[in-house]
């Protein structure tokens, strides 16, 4: 058996998938083999410019050097440490996350869905006997049964019932609807600070602040799902910091460690205390590879001033895309916060994604009509110009 990953052509790898891998994903017809920053190569040596590195997990682009180095060093020392032992890197990474968010404690896991499952369990454990959680329509919280029940999009739930009971969905950005949905059994409100998969929906100014106030007034927990918005994406460490508030529970994953798989819950200490030994666990959660990578990721962002750079990149995209919007009626809206970019079209976006791919630019379309770009915070100006040129031409072709 061949263990190398680089000896097959894309076609040969696709044949393997057809035979052995469950077909629950729609995949691009190429096998990727190597990446560096915002560029990636396939098995045939074709180079792509990546405006969507790692589906939002690679905020420093592909293979950020400090993260690579930290992981290399760690796998030579210890690959896995069970959570029945202490490990320095987990303690230090938890400290680093808390110091950049709000006073509290961290639970580590492996993905966004797992973080949200944990947050739901924690909220119920803390607020017992209340069990109901209000979430938003068009939200996305993951695919496990609890997380998909929390998700406010029936298309992700169909065929998997019965769902976990106790979730109510209300329109995003609407405080009155949220107030009306609260009853005596409500324990928490759970939202994304900006909806990602739901179409890069930025709520009205003051929304998060009013949710915070509502939770305080009614004795509810505020859970923020920062799986997509967190870890620097919006130009702050966490998107809610723009609003000057703090949640009771926050969930993280995607770029928590610059591309190494992981997730986390951060909870205010009084809430965190509701998880006592034996109540919740995750075998690989907080493993030393994740934690070393996460520390290297944070160090890179701070030493290279990349939070400011994320804001600058957002402004650059905004200038280009707003002027295109003036010109082309097909662009209904441009929604940008840092390196989280949504281009809302008056037509389906899938054709534009395909056109860009043919011109070797990787982007995404979500919610049918919203082109979503989640570029790296360290993408170079020339790469942005090169990609925007391809994107603009593709939008023009689709609009004509
Ligand atoms: C806001 C949000 N929450 C949760 C998830 C689920 O994360 P994962 O795919 O790591 O389970 C996602 C994934 O896109 C997300 O965007």
Offer a few descriptive terms:
400 residues; alpha/beta; Aspartate Aminotransferase, domain 2; seven-stranded mixed beta sheet; four-stranded mixed beta sheet
Describe this structure in words.
By secondary structure, this protein is α/β, with parallel strands linked by helices. The protein has a domain at 65-303: Type I PLP-dependent aspartate aminotransferase-like (Major domain) (Aspartate Aminotransferase, domain 2). The chain is 37% helix and 17% strand. The strands form three sheets. It has a seven-stranded mixed beta sheet, with helices on both faces. A four-stranded mixed beta sheet has the order 1-2-3-13. A four-stranded antiparallel beta sheet has the order 11-12-15-14, covered by helices on one side. The longest helix is centred in the last third of the chain and has 22 residues, at 306-327. The radius of gyration is 21 Å and the shape is globular. The structure holds pyridoxal-5'-phosphate.
Uncertain ranges: none
- CATH superfamily of the domain at 65-303, by name, is Type I PLP-dependent aspartate aminotransferase-like (Major domain)
The CATH architecture classification of the domain at 65-303 is 3-Layer(aba) Sandwich
Radius of gyration: 21 Å
Hetero groups bound?
pyridoxal-5'-phosphate
The number of helical segments is 12
Q: State the distance separating the first and last CA atoms.
A: 51 Å
Give the strand tally.
15
Enter the CATH topology name of the domain at 65-303: Aspartate Aminotransferase, domain 2
Q: Describe the largest sheet.
A: 7 strands, mixed
Please trace the helix and strand order, writing H or E for each element. Answer: HEEEHHEHEHEHEHEEEHHHEEHEEEH
Structural class: alpha/beta
- Percent helix, as a range, is 25-40%
Shape category: globular
Mean pLDDT: 97
């Amino acid at each position: 058996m061949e263990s190398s990953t680089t000896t097959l052509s894309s076609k040969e790898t696709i044949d393997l998938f057809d035979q052995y891998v469950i077909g629950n994903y729609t995949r691009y017809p190429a096998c990727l083999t190597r990446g560096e920053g915002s560029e990636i190569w396939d098995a045939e040596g074709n180079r792509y410019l990546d405006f969507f590195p790692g589906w939002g997990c690679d905020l420093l682009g592909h293979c950020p050097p400090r993260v690579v180095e930290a992981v290399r060093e760690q796998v030579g020392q210890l690959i896995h440490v069970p959570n029945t032992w202490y490990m320095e890197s987990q303690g230090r990474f938890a400290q680093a996350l808390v110091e950049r968010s709000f006073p509290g404690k961290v639970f580590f896991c492996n993905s966004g869905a797992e973080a949200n499952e944990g947050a739901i369990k924690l909220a119920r454990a803390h607020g017992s006997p209340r069990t109901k959680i209000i979430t938003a329509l068009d939200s996305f919280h993951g695919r496990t049964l609890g997380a998909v029940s929390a998700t406010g999009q029936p298309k992700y739930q169909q065929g998997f019932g019965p769902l976990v009971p106790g979730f109510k969905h209300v329109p995003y950005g609407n405080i009155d609807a949220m107030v009306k949905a609260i009853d005596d059994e409500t324990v928490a409100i759970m939202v994304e600070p900006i909806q990602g998969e739901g179409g890069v929906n930025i709520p009205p100014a003051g929304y998060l602040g009013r949710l915070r106030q509502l939770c305080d007034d009614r004795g509810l927990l505020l859970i923020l799902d920062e799986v997509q918005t967190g870890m620097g994406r919006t130009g702050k460490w966490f998107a809610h910091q723009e609003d000057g508030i703090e949640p009771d529970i926050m969930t993280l994953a995607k770029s928590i460690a610059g591309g190494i798989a992981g997730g986390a819950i951060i909870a205010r200490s009084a809430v965190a205390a509701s998880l006592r030994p034996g109540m919740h666990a995750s075998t690989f959660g907080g493993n030393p590879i994740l934690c070393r990578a996460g520390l290297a990721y944070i160090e890179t962002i701070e030493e290279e001033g990349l939070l400011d750079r994320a804001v600058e990149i957002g402004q650059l995209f905004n200038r280009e895309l707003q002027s295109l919007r003036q010109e082309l009626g097909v662009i209904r809206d441009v929604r940008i916060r840092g390196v989280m970019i949504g281009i809302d079209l008056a037509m389906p976006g899938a054709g534009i994604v395909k056109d860009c791919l043919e011109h070797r630019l990787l982007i995404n379309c979500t919610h049918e009509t919203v082109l979503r770009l989640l570029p790296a915070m360290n993408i170079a100006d020339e790469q942005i110009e090169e990609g925007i040129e391809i994107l603009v031409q593709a939008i023009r072709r689709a609009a004509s």
